[in-house]
């Protein structure tokens, strides 16, 4: 029986979303180099990285503990956009997404002493066109290196640029809470 839940993520957004489902979990982050094989595509990337983030916990996980890890990417025109390395890369991402539809893919990995399960969610987000002036202002105003695809749906981009979302809003924020709810209810 699971008594302890660890969210293995430094993301304040993931912590906030999980707190809407669960009272009393711990946040613990063990560093891992987030590198994946170049042949992986779409949800294969996020599945791989979510499992990779769980590896540092594998040896010392307790019998009554569940570790939750997650990874999010933006998938657009055959390319994975993670967190941009710098403002220039963030600008390229926003220009590429401008006026188009992309996918936001998040995988969640559930690891216990006995098992590991991975599930993913895909949402489609359509942006209105974004002017160069707006991109420049956005890059000077927000820390885009914190977000996959260089944007946060819950901020200015969501309010001013997003034309539509198909699928889970929480997935686009970074944690598809319905997947966690389904997993936890099936455990009981």
Automatic annotation (TrEMBL):
Keywords for the protein's UniProt record, in alphabetical order: Cytoplasm, Hydrolase, Nucleotide metabolism
InterPro entries hit by this protein: ITPase-like_fam, Maf-like
One MF annotation (Gene Ontology) recorded for this entry: nucleoside triphosphate diphosphatase activity
Keyword Cytoplasm: yes
GO biological process: nucleotide metabolic process
Enzyme Commission no: 3.6.1.9
One GO term describing the cellular component: cytoplasm
Positions of the record's site feature: Important for substrate specificity: 13, 72, 154
Cofactor: a divalent metal cation
Active-site residues, as the UniProt record annotates them: 71
Principal location: cytoplasm
Major enzyme class: hydrolase
Annotated catalysed reactions: dTTP + H2O = dTMP + diphosphate + H(+); UTP + H2O = UMP + diphosphate + H(+)
Subcellular locations according to the entry: Cytoplasm
Function noted in UniProt: Nucleoside triphosphate pyrophosphatase that hydrolyzes dTTP and UTP. May have a dual role in cell division arrest and in preventing the incorporation of modified nucleotides into cellular nucleic acids.
Entry similarity comment: Belongs to the Maf family. YhdE subfamily.
Protein's name in the database: dTTP/UTP pyrophosphatase
UniProt gene name: maf
């Amino acid at each position: 029986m699971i008594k302890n839940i660890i969210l293995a993520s430094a993301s304040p957004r993931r912590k906030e979303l999980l707190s809407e489902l669960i009272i009393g979990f711990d946040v613990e982050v063990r560093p891992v180099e987030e590198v994946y094989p170049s042949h992986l595509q779409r949800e294969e990337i996020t599945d791989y990285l979510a499992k990779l983030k769980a590896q540092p916990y594998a040896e010392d996980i307790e019998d009554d503990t569940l570790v939750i890890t997650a990874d999010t990417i933006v998938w657009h025109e055959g390319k994975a956009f993670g967190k941009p390395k710098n403002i220039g890369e963030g600008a390229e991402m926003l220009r590429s997404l401008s006026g188009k539809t992309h996918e936001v893919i998040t995988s969640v990995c559930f690891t216990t002493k006995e098992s590991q399960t991975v599930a993913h969610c895909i949402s489609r987000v359509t942006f209105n066109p974004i002017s160069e002036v707006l991109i420049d202002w956005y890059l000077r105003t927000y820390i885009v290196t914190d977000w996959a695809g260089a944007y946060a749906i819950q901020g200015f981009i969501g309010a001013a640029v997003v034309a539509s979302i198909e699928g889970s809003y929480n997935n686009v924020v970074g944690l598809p809470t319905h997947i966690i709810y389904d997993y936890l209810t099936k455990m009981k």
